[in-house]
Amino acid sequence: MKHADKNKIESTAAPLPDGHPSVAFGKVGVLIVNLGTPDGTDYTSMRRYLREFLTDKRVIEWPRVLWYPILFGIVLNTRPGRVGKAYESIWNKERDESYLRTYTRNQSVALASSLQSHPNVQVDWAMRYGQPSIKDRLTALKDSGCERVLIFPLYPQYAASTTATVNDKAFETLQNMRWQPALRTVPPYHDDPAYVSAIANSITEHLSTLDWEPQKVIASFHGIPQSYFDKGDPYHCHCMKTMRLVREKLGWDKDKLITTFQSRFGPEEWLQPYTDETIEKLAKEGVKRIAVINPGFVSDCLETLEEIAGEAGEIFHEHGGEKFTHIPCLNDGEAGMQVIETVVRRELQGWI
Ligand SMILES: C=CC1=C(C)c2cc3[nH]c(cc4nc(cc5[nH]c(cc1n2)c(C)c5CCC(=O)O)C(CCC(=O)O)=C4C)c(C)c3C=C
Ligand SMILES: [Fe+2]
Ligand SMILES: [Fe+2]
User: Where does Fe(2+) bind (predicted)?
Assistant: First the structure.
């Protein structure tokens, strides 16, 4: 037996004695998890989703006594209607769901297919907020015989408000299990050569489809409050490292590829430079052609389709910009699946 085979799950069990409860075993689970999404764009669905999201202490770290009166008194009364309209504009009407859900499901199906040569591996998907929940899918994997489960938070750059809260939820689910599966969590892969190449290639491939060349390419990441960074969150460093590597891969200089942060929420200062302000400034300075990419988002969603492809494009045009293009996320395409499969195969080493 090769060294790496020692940890593999062998199904050499004898038949169960009479009266013994039936047990499923011998499998390895992979659970890919993205942020979440409302079930519908109506007020009730939006409120339920935002409530689950915005009561997460990993997302809003303010003391509850200060935050809850604002959340329940103002935010959850005003935001569901406004954000519901934004979701409506990017809703996948064919499936009556958000694209984030569509892409995440497709990624799970494609990953399962690429791991077909390992029949004991079972792939599933979940959302941190909304459905399908981490609790339900992790329990289903365990019940179907997964003795080992790899949790894959679909965020290349680690942030406590994304990666850690997925892992927290998975471990919280285990707290209620008598017979827990062994759990592994996927580390950030912001500097993985497969990911860096996929982002660099997606830029060059997209630009080759245009009959114009952008003067600037903006890499816009979701922001976090500056105070989270000051407390030690590595997110900013991960974003900056990703973009240094992408720039090196492309052989571009610093002026051509700019890193910015979007999606501010609340009155605090967030990571800077802000995407909207940068785009406005560039347009005012006379830059006429830009492209924007969202390397931190594995799948297109509200934040990329509405906030960037929609709103950011409008800001650019309003202030004198002429040509604007949004470079799509890797989604469930071949290059994106190559990244997901590479990371999963590496993290499953010793288990398959
Ligand atoms: C303080 C609040 C928030 C922090 C911190 C935050 C971090 C963060 N979020 C993502 C990825 C996504 N966020 C999305 C939507 C979204 N984010 C917040 C707030 C914070 N995010 C809110 C309130 C919302 C909902 C929309 C809204 O009300 O504005 C999404 C899109 C989901 C979809 O269904 O399309 C993603 C994805 C990251 C990566 C991140 C920290 C690094
Ligand atoms: Fe967010
Ligand atoms: Fe740093």
Answer: 222, 303
Q: b vs e for 74-104, b when ≥16 Cβ sit within 10 Å of the residue's Cβ?
A: ebbeebbeebbebbeebbeeeeebbbbbbbb
For ligand 1, pick from 265, 304, 306 the residue to mutate: most ligand atoms within 8 Å of CB: 265
Domain count, the chain: 1
Show the tokens assigned to 62. 């303010």
**Sign of the C-alpha dihedral computed for residues 307, 311, 317 and 323 taken in this order:** positive
Residue 46 CB neighbours (<10 A): 23
Question: What ipTM was assigned to the predicted interfaces of this complex?
Answer: 0.93
Mean pLDDT of 25-41: 96
Domain extent, residue 263, equals 193-327
Q: Is residue 16 part of a domain?
A: no
Q: Is residue 129 part of a domain?
A: no
Q: Are 8 and 351 in contact (CB under 8 A)?
A: yes
Is position 244 within any domain?
Answer: yes
Coil, strand, or helix at residue 122? Answer: strand
Q: Is residue 292 part of a domain?
A: yes
303 is in an annotated binding site: yes
Residues 6+ away with beta carbon under 8 Å from 104: 32, 34, 125, 127, 154, 299
3-state secondary structure at position 349: coil
Identify which of 263, 269, 307, 330 to mutate to test ligand 1's pocket (most ligand atoms within 8 A of the CB): 263
CATH number, domain at 235?
A: 3.40.50.1400
